[in-house]
Write a structure and sequence with these properties.
14% of the residues lie in helices and 27% in strands. Strand 19 and strand 20 form a beta hairpin. GO terms for molecular function: calcium ion binding; serine-type endopeptidase activity. It catalyses: Degradation of blood coagulation factors Va and VIIIa; Selective cleavage of Arg-|-Ile bond in factor X to form factor Xa. It holds the Pfam family EGF.
């Protein structure tokens, strides 16, 4: 059959022939099929191949690769022979080596990882804090232990520096010390405690920003010494109209506190470390000279209470007020144990391997020890860079 196509000026005829093949006539022999599907190799390979420059793709990919073909390209025995990458054995800690082309793979035992199975998984920072007594940081592929100021690293353990070792760093001697913020009451004729705080060094106290409404503040470290405040540093994002978000402030004293074994600052840790010990601890401690109960009498002696951490979903559900990511809950749902009025600014402290770290600041709550409610604390881990900048400068 034929098909005719016409044009306006020139007549052009295109003829297509349809051939009908019956039965098995549609198949052709293998030699004929090979001839039909044959394609010319690249790189002008063929009978003049030996006249061309050696090429690895022509010698070892388009042709059957063997030692002779590869040697033609490299013209060097060392470059031609890949060798056994598993000799000498590169895998450590019982890993099994699998040889490859110019590389190898180590199949590690369950407790190890890394290219050569050199990393012990159980000693990573994410597992038991890398075995460190204070801070763990991954440097390269390995966990490295660091200590808080006033401590030194010895045999992978942080130990307190002696007075001679401290030298000019003695202001960072670690420990936990509660201070009271006081103002002079004209009606009572004496100083009155209104908030708490924690000593960070010889010259610095950390407290809650909402405690600093009165500019005439003294810091009392107990019956022994009083110190006046030289500088107040309220967090730049604190808003008195929203008095509990970013509820954190620093006070610089006019004169240094005389440190001793009984009078020592609390430690600060980096964000991840502080978050971890805060969440995992079941016995963090809050303290203060606040009221014994809601609208009750003020304590005459420093009160201390262990409080468990409360998971964030449960924390948010417990209050009609907004609990931001800069806050956290701690306490008991149905027990008469809680921080109270007057405890604001005091420490939420967590002990790790014998050292006390500041993990929170007493901030606010709905009355005290109300069933279904918790104490709300400033999340100190969020402010580590800010604290460092202020206290260093």
């Amino acid at each position: 059959k034929s098909l005719k196509v016409g044009a306006t000026k020139n007549m052009c005829f295109i003829r297509f022939s349809l051939i009908v093949i019956k039965g098995d006539a549609v198949f052709v022999s293998q030699p004929e099929a090979h001839t039909l599907l044959h394609r010319q190799r690249r790189y002008n390979s063929g009978k003049f191949e030996e006249m061309l420059k050696d090429n690895l793709e022509r010698e070892c990919i388009e042709e059957t690769c063997n030692m002779e073909e590869a040697r033609e390209v490299f013209e060097n025995d060392e470059k031609t022979v890949d060798g056994d990458q598993c000799q000498p054995p590169p895998c450590q800690n019982g890993g099994i080596c699998e040889d490859g082309i110019s590389t190898y793979v180590c199949w590690c035992k369950p407790d190890f990882s890394g290219k050569n199975c050199e990393i012990e998984v159980t000693k990573q920072c994410s597992v038991n804090n890398g075995g460190c007594s204070h801070f763990c940081a991954v440097e390269g592929e390995y966990p490295v232990c660091h200590c808080a100021a006033g401590y030194r690293l010895k045999n992978q353990h942080c130990e307190k520096c002696t007075r001679e070792q401290q030298g000019s760093m003695s202001k960072h001697v670690s420990g936990c010390l509660q201070v009271a913020l006081m103002y002079h009451s004209a009606s009572l004729g004496r100083a009155q405690t209104f908030c708490g705080g924690s000593l960070l060094s010889e010259l610095w106290v950390i407290t809650a920003a909402h405690c600093l409404a009165d500019p005439h503040i003294n810091t009392d470290e107990g019956p022994e010494r009083d110190h006046t405040v030289a500088e107040q540093h309220i967090h730049h994002m604190y808003d008195p109209k929203l008095p509990y978000n970013h509820d954190i402030a620093l006070l610089k004293l006019t004169s240094p506190v005389e440190l001793s074994n009984e009078r020592r600052p609390i430690c600060l840790g980096p964000k991840d470390f502080t978050e971890t010990i805060m969440r995992e601890s079941t016995g963090s401690v809050v303290s203060g000279w606040g009221n014994i109960r809601f609208l009750g009498y003020q304590a005459t002696k420093l009160q201390k209470l262990q409080v468990p951490y409360v998971e964030r979903p449960q924390c948010k559900q417990s209050s009609k007020d907004h609990i931001t990511r800069f806050m956290f809950c701690a306490g008991y749902r149905d027990e008469m144990k809680d921080s109270c009025q007057g405890d604001s600014g005091g420490p939420h402290a967590t002990s790790y391997d014998g050292t006390w770290f500041l993990t929170g600041i007493v901030s606010w709550g709905e009355e005290c020890a109300v069933s279904g409610k918790y104490g709300i604390y400033t999340r100190v881990s969020r402010y580590y860079p800010w604290i460092s900048v202020i206290t260093i400068n």
